[in-house]
Amino acid sequence: MTKIKLRAIEVSKTFGTGKDEVVAIEKLSFDVKENEFTVLVGPSGCGKSTFLYMVAGFEKPTDGRILLAGKPIQKPGPDRGFVFQEFVLYPWRTVLGNVTFGLEIAGLNKEEAKKTATRYIRMVGLEGFENKYPHTLSGGMKQRVGIARALAYDPEVLLMDEPFGALDAQTRKIMQRELEKIMEKTRKTVLFVTHSVIEAVYLADTIVVMTARPGRVKKIVEVNLPRPRSYTGKQYLAIRREVLNFLEEEVTKSQKLQKEQ
Amino acid sequence: MGHDQILIRRKLTSTFYFLLPFFCVFVIWELLVYLGIVRAKLIPSPSGIFLSLFEGIVLEHVLLTHLWQSLIRILLGFGLGTFLGTSLGILMGVEELIHKAFYPILSFLIPVPTLAWVPLLLIIFGIGDETVILAIFLGSFFPIVYNTMNGIRTIEKKEIWAAQSMGANRVTLFFDILIPGSMVSIITGLRLAIGYSWRALVGAEMLAAGISWGIGNMIYTARAFNDIQTMFVGLVVIAVGGFLMDRIIMDPLEKRTIEKWGMSKER
Questions:
Q1: Per-residue pLDDT tens over the stretch A186-224
Q2: Is B76 exposed, middle or buried (0-12, 13-18, 19+ CB in 10 A)?
Q3: Second label for A225, Cα 20 to 30 Å away, from A82, A103, B100, B249?
Q4: Which residues pair with B51 in a beta bridge?
Q5: Is A163 on the interface with B (CB under 8 A)?
Q6: Considering only alpha carbons, which residue of chain B is nearest residue A134?
Q7: Residue B261 to chain A, least CA–CA distance (Å)
Q8: Does residue A6 carry a pLDDT above 90?
């Protein structure tokens, strides 16, 4: 039995009050196992990013609890690394400076921070770009920095919010393969949010399909395929079809919901 | 051709194109005066102005003394405005309570022209440096407070989240995120403040007519003697002074920060 790293227990999130009240998430419960790659998929507006923000501690659940290694999450902290869709690199820091930031906060001296950061920069394939500023990098390279930055201070869980959503299709595929390789090396517990089923089935050990708003768990799909996976394998396509069917029902529902509003 | 040579050539070309319109205006102007279309008594020729400029600087040092007095006032006033302005702006940006306390007053005072304060300052502080320096301070203070505050308040929430998820405390957040993150806005405020400082300087020096030195004073006194040449010299000195202050203080600051970071808009 693998250990459970992250546990959501009947988590609800409501925005606004009175007439403007919107229930984004309602009694969402599922587990993320240690060293596993868990992907949250769902129609847009189902609250999957909101849930990730709550795991990160950026936002608080209205009801329910989220436990990290058995302890309830109170606030943001370096035991969780976060990768944003919009990269959110600091333009005033170089590639190296962005990656060492978390290490400096952790109290490492300059030399140690540089050594560790360089290792991760190499891992994401950005050797030679250490002293470049983010604005000189392409989108794919920026997100490589984002991933290196979140891994460098060695968090227990890596949270990724549609990390490849802002990239073009070609770069996206390359990044998916790269991420798979990096995860094989680091064996991190990952919680990954996307609305792309292609991406989900390619990367996940476990897929949590969410319902349309208010977000709940619709279905949990285990992906027991050997890695590296092929985007055209028979089993891969079968699982993709299965997940897509679950999702399509929910997308139809969410479109109806939008029309009513 | 070497890399440096190309850079030098580019620099020379851009300087040339910057100066060309001035040169054209001077030539046409000179001709108009020379041909008698414009009366030299009302509008002196550019060559006459430059001659006076030269005399004032090299031969009599009078102009230099005027300029020196004005520069000291502007640096003190602008320096004070920068220090207090960024301080209050940062506090208002960071602390909601301080924002609530100061913002109504601030938004009320921003539209008041700096010169409207001067008669009041004259009564309180009398005719002298204090009045002029405080006028410059008031002129620079408001744009700096407002822009600094805005810069901090409009920092992306996610930039703060990212730092918090790396374990940043309030002090780290302040120095590593809030300050560099609001640099674009702070620089805009300082740029505006330099312009306002010169306006306040000249205006206050004219109103505080009893003081005997300063560019504004020089122009105002020249009126009594119908000395149009000196008035024009004053105008040139003010224009060049404002331009140089921007180049000497702001350009290096911008190059070292937001330009290097890719945060300044393409010009």
A1: 999 999 999 899 999 999 999 999 998 889 999 999 999
A2: middle
A3: A82
A4: none
A5: no
A6: B261
A7: 5
A8: yes
Of the candidates A147, A138, A214, A222, the one whose C-alpha atom is nearest the C-alpha of residue A181 is A147
Determine how β-strand A206-210 pairs with β-strand A37-41: parallel
Conformational region of residue A126, where left means phi above 0, alpha means psi within -120 to 50, and beta covers everything else: alpha
Is some CB atom of chain B closer than 8 A to the CB atom of A106?
A: yes
Contact status of B155 with chain A (Cβ, < 8 Å): no
| B175 touching chain A per CB within 8 A | no
ipTM of predicted complex: 0.94
Inter-chain contact B180–A90, Cβ cutoff 8 Å? yes
Beta bridge partners of A209: A41, A219
Q: How far is A91 from A47, CA to CA, in rounded Å?
A: 29
Q: What average pLDDT does range A14-27 have in this prediction? A: 91
% of chain B with per-residue pLDDT over 70: 98
Contacts 24+ apart (CB under 8 A), A229-233: A229/A180, A229/A201, A229/A202, A231/A173, A231/A198, A231/A202
A107 touches chain B (CB under 8 A): no
Tell me which residue in A82, A106, A133 faces B162 most closely, judged by beta carbons.
Answer: A82
Q: Which two tokens stand for residue A67?
A: 């436990």
pLDDT at A252 over 90: no
The whole-model pTM stands at 0.87
CA B190 to chain A, closest CA, distance in angstroms equals 19
User: Nearest C-alpha of chain A: how many angstroms from B255?
Assistant: 12
Given a contact cutoff of 8 angstroms between Cβ atoms, the answer to whether A246 and A209 are in contact is yes
Which residues make Cβ contacts (< 8 Å) with residue B91, sequence separation at least 6? B98
Alpha-carbon torsion angle B193, B198, B203, B209, nearest 10: 130
Instruction: Give the CA distances from residue A114 to residues A121, B21, B124, B198, B220, in Å, rounded to whole numbers and listed in that order.
Output: 10, 52, 58, 47, 61
The predicted model gives A30-35 an average pLDDT of 96
C-alpha to C-alpha distance for A191 and A187, rounded to whole angstroms:
13
pLDDT band at B267 (very low <50, low <70, confident <90, very high): very low
Return d(Cα B184, Cα B264) in angstroms, integer.
Answer: 7
